[in-house]
Amino acid sequence: MAKLLSSFELLVKPIASAMPLLPGGDRTIVQAYLLLLSNLNPISEPEVALRLKFTVGGMPLNSRKLLTIFDPGTGNQFDTLDVNGKTGDLVLPSGFTGLFWLQSDLRQPDVLPAPPNKPNLEIRGYVEAEVSPKSATSNVKLLITPQHRSMFFSSLTASDCNQKTCLLSTAWGGALIEFP
Question: What is the pLDDT, as a whole number, of residue 109?
Answer without folding.
Answer: 56
